[in-house]
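[Meeting: bench + compute handoff]

Bench side (C.D.) handed over the final construct sequence. Compute side (W.E.) agreed to return the predicted structure before the next meeting so the bench team could plan truncations. Sequence as handed over:
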Amino acid sequence: MNAQAHLPARNTKVMNRFDLTSRLIARLKNDEAVIGGIGNTNFDLWAAGHRPQNFYMLGSMGLALPIALGVALAQPKRRVFALEGDGSLLMQLGALSTIATLSPNNLTMIVMDNGIYQITGAQPTPAASTADLVGIALASGIANSAWAADEEDFERLVEQSLSAAAPTLIGVRIDEKPGTGTTRRDPVQIRERFMHGLGVREPL
């Protein structure tokens, strides 16, 4: 049975990850940093609009939020977005309470929830049946957390986050379509381009 049939009842539309990522990238005008979690999340980030302020994670499940937190703290005047999947967030739930404690107002987390570990065989995650990730974020102290009801609501929540006084978490239910394109898997190039994009290193 489709894992989405078991998702906790939410008044939310099932959307598409690439479409939402494209909508996000289209709204970025001020060299905002975007950290893409592993797998399809960063495949879609790469395809939606490659830019030097994007960081594409390779093989480090659950670390998109901690990396984004570090960037947000290091560059408090720069808006930072983290794109993460439900399985990866569940692997690193402690990051939520750390982010709530440090409370960087320039950090927005977008959780793409399809209820499965998509690239390893579509095994259901706990988010498919029992775990409400926005509820967990709220309980962890991230008061500015909400499910996006549809694409228009997603864009509204993103826009609100750009001037928020505390970290923001936006949960989105997504379909099971695979990522669009494939990230170029060159860790040194990814790192160097990102550091140049953030203005902390000259290009090689």
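W.E. noted at the follow-up: The CA atoms of residues 176 and 194 lie 29 Å apart. C.D. will use this when planning the next construct.
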